[in-house]
Amino acid sequence: MKNRRVLVTQRGAAELMQVIEEEMPEPSAGQVRLKVLAAPVSAPDITARLGQSPILPRLPFTPGYAVVGVVEACGSGVARAWSGAPAAALTVIGGYSEHILLPVGELIPLPEGLDPAQVAPLVMNYLVAYQCLHRWARVKPGETALVIGASGGIGSAFLQLGRLANLKLYGLASVNKHDLLRQYGATPIDYRQEDFVAVLRRLEPQGIDCVFDGMAGEYIRRGFSLLRRGGRLVCYGNPLGLAQAFKAVSQVLRLNLLPNGRSASYYSTGVSRLDRRPFLQDWQTLFGLLQQGQIQPIIAARFPILQATQANALLESGQVVGNVVLLAPELYSHPA
DSSP class of residue 36? Predict the structure, then answer.
């Protein structure tokens, strides 16, 4: 049997990615082989490929920050219960593949019967939004929140989860995406045509409780200026290199030195994963919300898993509302 996967051999455009075929990998002790059914296309996939991430994978590498699939083979020492079980993983790299080897300790148990395409955005995008809301900002019902970058995969997760948390939501997005924000009860602000700080100072003269910033740069300082006393800013944007990461973290640290009763923090899955228990708890919460129909990820486009070039190009275009997902051939159906 053969395995196929997408490979980045040089930094640059999506068209430079290649599909390679190799011998089917066999799991060693403590590993499983996961048949990949779905993999989200995410911003970190693109920044890693372009060389715009603070910590870059060595070339060559297979992109893919998360996967959803079924355990197909187990190495020695792996409990028999995993054989044939549905599972997901936060892989960071490697997800654009028909099969992937993973340490069993990295698997996320999945309930039976969930749609892999719907689960895929939960593994990272919804996790980031959920943890920013409930572990970093510790939001309370009735609070007011601004989502900077409200229409993409993570932004749309903030909208759905923020509505469930009974927040009063505002969101920054280009005008052609405002209908999505209104669908989830958020007040849209066109960041290209309007000064969002002036708009919110007019609408919320007492200030707002939370800002969730996926853009970084000047948005950190300007978003922080909107907070009332006791307000919290959480920056979660992926910095485009070490210099930007240092600048963003330094800015967050400086803001916390101001004696004004407000706070700023920088969310990072890398730091958070030092303790896996909160992750597992939050994933199970999200899977439960999906089962109950309380959340439903927006899937803007689906591609066969080996057509990652087209999927990456679409996400990079900036026109995507929601998520782009790669699917195993048996799950893929071409949009009408």
Answer: E
Q: How many residues does the chain have?
A: 336
Distance separating alpha carbons of residues 8 and 149, to the nearest angstrom? 28
φ, ψ for residue 275, nearest 5 deg: -120, 110
**Closest C-alpha to 35, from 65, 5, 78:** 5
Burial classification of residue 325, based on how many CB atoms lie within 10 Å of its CB (0-12 exposed, 13-18 middle, 19 or more buried): buried
Query: Is residue 116 helix, strand or coil?
Result: helix
CA dist 220 and 234 (Å) reads 9
Burial of 58 (0-12, 13-18, 19+ CB in 10 A): exposed
Least Cα distance to 61 among 12, 22, 5 occurs for 5
CA distance 188 to 175: 8
Q: Annotate 6-24 with three-state secondary structure.
A: EEECCCCCHHHCEEEEEEC
Walk along the chain (336 residues) and give the pLDDT tens digit of each residue.
899 999 999 999 999 999 999 999 999 999 999 999 999 999 999 999 999 887 889 999 999 999 999 999 999 999 999 999 999 999 999 999 999 999 999 999 999 999 999 999 999 999 999 999 999 999 999 999 999 999 889 999 999 999 999 999 999 999 999 999 999 999 999 988 999 999 999 999 999 999 999 887 789 999 999 999 999 999 997 766 666 767 777 878 888 787 789 999 989 776 545 688 999 999 999 999 999 999 999 999 999 999 999 999 999 998 899 999 999 999 976 543
Helix axes 43-50, 308-316, angle to 10 degrees: 100
The SS3 of residue 199 is: helix
Any residues with CB less than 8 A from the CB of 19 and at least 6 apart, and which? 4, 5, 6, 7, 306
Q: Chain centroid to CA 231: how far?
A: 24
Report how far residue 245's alpha carbon sits from residue 250's, in angstroms, rounded to the nearest whole number.
8
